[in-house]
């Protein structure tokens, strides 16, 4: 029985967050993936957990932090946007961006006990996570097999991503830097790094200060996308990529079953996330079978209506002979390919599967 004398802010935080507790960790661990399929879970933003029929588990872009939490800094002054921030650079704006986290963090990183590789597409804070890094280093004892060699669970990403993990104290022998074209085998999964089309990462500091007239870094060192080939099908993970013609090239190169695109309603004067029309063009260019928008869940100032994708898809699918279907997902939800490929929309499990398996206990049956 709780007593108000024992309740503190700390006790509230620990008893309430993460909101899903270890529910999803348990669901993933208990899931037996049928032969010829793969299962995945949406962890929010562009975070994915992928599990194969041979119990290979990888996480991509898993992040469990938060966005803005206060209008003020520690000294009590109203915060302004850092002029070096990529959004300030592209917009000339200085008001603080109201990007508050709109969905819960559904997976407890400290309850992760089995994982074969941690991937990050790029270094923006919503795509790479120090908590997961610490939890994997401290809690995951089981080794994995990378390129047919047994080793500790690696952290795989672009040069900038492995530089960031290194700066957090991740040991050198855990880091694998990839560039477009590199292929890594993780037990029964084969991941190919491909070109990112994330123009926002190109204008992200470093370098700090004035960048007018400076040559941009090589995108390939800052961000990569991933093609994940499992025994049950192939996934295209595009990180924060914008729309680009590269999707048609990758659609020719790979036989993609499920593709993900960063969707969002850009604030006025900002171009960062893809719109509904871009998501459909991406699906067509990649020649995917299923096209799933992600990232629109996360930030309060980039929220977007996924019905736009469905309406446009219904309008265009016959005229343009679309060969793919969209799938509108929910954070924390599970997707099994190919079982769920025609579902169009996700709904959380509604429960009560065992209804009336026990006697009801009511004052009188006609209560019902
Ligand atoms: Fe980003
Ligand atoms: Fe992002």
From TrEMBL:
Which sequence ranges are marked TM in the entry?
A: none
Gene Ontology molecular function, alphabetical: hydrolase activity
Q: Return the EC number.
A: 3.1.1.-
Question: Keywords of this protein's UniProt record, alphabetized?
Answer: Hydrolase
Going by the record, the broad EC class of this enzyme is hydrolase
- Cross-referenced SUPFAM superfamilies: Metallo-hydrolase/oxidoreductase
Instruction: Please identify the protein, giving its name as recorded.
Output: L-ascorbate 6-phosphate lactonase
User: Per the UniProt entry, what species is this protein from, by scientific name?
Assistant: Holdemania massiliensis
Q: Which gene encodes it?
A: ulaG
